Amino acid sequence: MRRVRLRKPKAEPPPASIDDRELGEVSGGRDLIRALADAHRDGVVLVRGLLIAQEAADAWTVEADKTFRYAASHPGDERAWARAADARRRAVVADDEELRATERWATHLEQVWTLIALAEELCPVGITAGRPVTATRRSLRSGRRSRGHCSH
To answer: In this structure, which of 11, 23, 33, 134 has its CB flanked by the most CB atoms within 10 Å?
Structure first.
């Protein structure tokens, strides 16, 4: 049986999250744009981390299944059972990391939604302004952009 070595993903430092104090400091359009740009950058880092965590969890689950099947077909092979147990432990750790990455992403989305709500307060005729999202997508695809509706 070929032994597969999965590399542990490099731990990226968690992005600086937006907290309530920072949201309270967003007072004008420029601050809001800066906060949205920072949130986008942080979101990219979080999504990459989540995708890596999902990939690792899936790979370790497959490896654990394979090593268990091999060990089950060779009941006297203690090393096979040890490899199966080790792979299962690694799969559990990878699943836990995937869960933590998902929770970080969900928290980030809540913060982004708060920023979007602030944007709608500052610019009530902005991107969503009561229009369905499909209409917004159509207007963005057609290249039409309305300017001058924001007071800030």
So the answer is: 23
